[in-house]
Design brief:
The chain has 13 helices and 15 strands. The protein is α/β, with parallel strands linked by helices.
């Protein structure tokens, strides 16, 4: 039996929870004990009573939950106020995004905990099954937020993303044609925008050309094409990901000076540091700021705006891995499942993910299973 703790997320305006009552029921039916912090699910529409009906126990304080639990399942990375709750006995399973936060990395190294990052769990085909559900949602939300902040009263240039009769539709440029970028392009095209995806992988370019609607163009990503495309872009969506590494700074400050005033950048890559030189994390309460006359939307937990949908999608993807770890222990689970092994970032005070170590100039150690 494994004791699994589900704490309430404390990041500002984070309403998701790491496990639904359905997930709790699956684990308790397998003989595990699930501890859920009081009102952890309320932001996603799940009451304590629903968790109790699923066999979970409600814990009144985070301190007590961390003290009792062996495995911690979260949504977002631990915040500084949570660092001292995490001990060597814990296996912590969440979105860490270590490459963007050296202090978090150092804190988890000091803790001695086993840290398994959703975002680096990777299958042999290079797919990222635990990043995919939130990437899908973030990608689909990005054009909606771009459309919102194009409004004049929001600081934008006053352009309607759907266009109107007799007017050339607005232009959306998507940086990266992966899961986030493809979903962003799909929604933007459905809103009638002219869409250009910039992608570096030729095979992916061919695939996108096959599956995207006619109002989506796909071009090779290089500095020349990037500068050319963003000059008249109404919305630029940053959707570049290198698993475990900081996002590349594709948009330089001088490039923004070539964009029209009131254009909007939606930087979905902000969790990994952002893909523009001018990006810095924002919140749902204060989602935008203006640099070089361009509106920047850099919310670090975009799916948190729609927590009910996001929580269900997340649990649908993470639960099988939670079950593996709970049933077998993290070490045996990682031995049997290569994708889960890729999720190991920090073990016994050592960084075992090379990309994370390189991002901070810290020592890398090969994981021993």
């Amino acid at each position: 039996m494994t004791i699994i703790g589900v704490p309430k997320e404390i990041k500002e305006e984070e309403y998701r929870v790491a496990m639904t009552p359905a997930g709790a029921l699956e684990l308790t039916n397998r003989g595990h004990e699930v501890l859920v912090e009081h009102n952890a699910g309320i932001g996603s529409g799940f009451t304590d009573e629903e968790y109790i009906e699923s066999g979970a126990k409600i814990i009144n304080s985070a301190d007590e939950l961390f003290e009792k639990a062996e495995m911690i399942v979260k949504v977002k990375e631990p915040l500084e106020s949570e660092y001292n709750r995490i001990k060597g006995k814990h296996t912590v399973f969440t979105y860490f995004h270590f490459a963007a936060d050296k202090s978090l990395t150092e804190a988890m190294v000091r803790s001695g905990a086993t840290c398994i990052a959703y975002e680096t769990v990777q299958r042999e085909d290079c797919s990222l099954p635990l990043l995919a559900p939130m990437s899908e949602i973030a990608g689909r939300v990005a054009p909606i937020m771009g459309a919102r902040f194009l409004a004049k009263f929001e600081g934008g240039k006053g352009v309607l993303i759907t266009g109107a009769s007799g007017i050339v539709p607005p232009k959306v440029v998507v940086l990266g044609g992966g899961f986030v970028g493809a979903n962003a392009a799909l929604i933007a095209s459905g809103l009638n925008a002219r869409v250009t995806i910039l992608e570096i992988n030729i095979d992916r370019i061919r695939k996108l050309n096959e599956i995207m609607p006619k109002n989506v163009n796909v071009a090779y990503s290089n500095e020349y094409n990037l500068r050319k495309e963003i000059k008249d872009a109404d919305v630029v969506i940053g959707a570049v990901l290198i698993p475990g590494k900081a996002a590349p700074k594709l948009l330089k400050r001088d490039m923004l000076k070539e964009m029209e005033a009131g254009s909007v950048i939606v930087d979905v890559a902000i969790d990994q540091g952002g893909c523009t030189e001018t990006s810095r994390p924002t919140t749902h309460k204060n989602p935008v700021y203006v640099e070089e006359n361009v509106v920047h939307y850099c919310v670090a937990n975009i799916p948190g705006a729609y927590p009910r949908t996001s929580t269900i999608a997340l649990t649908n993807s993470t639960l099988s891995y939670v079950v593996e770890i709970a049933d077998l222990g993290w070490k045996e689970a990682a031995r049997r499942d290569g994708a889960l092994k890729e999720g190991l970032n920090i073990v016994d005070g050592k960084i075992v993910n090379k990309a994370v170590a390189e991002s901070h100039g810290m020592e890398y150690s090969e994981v021993k299973l």
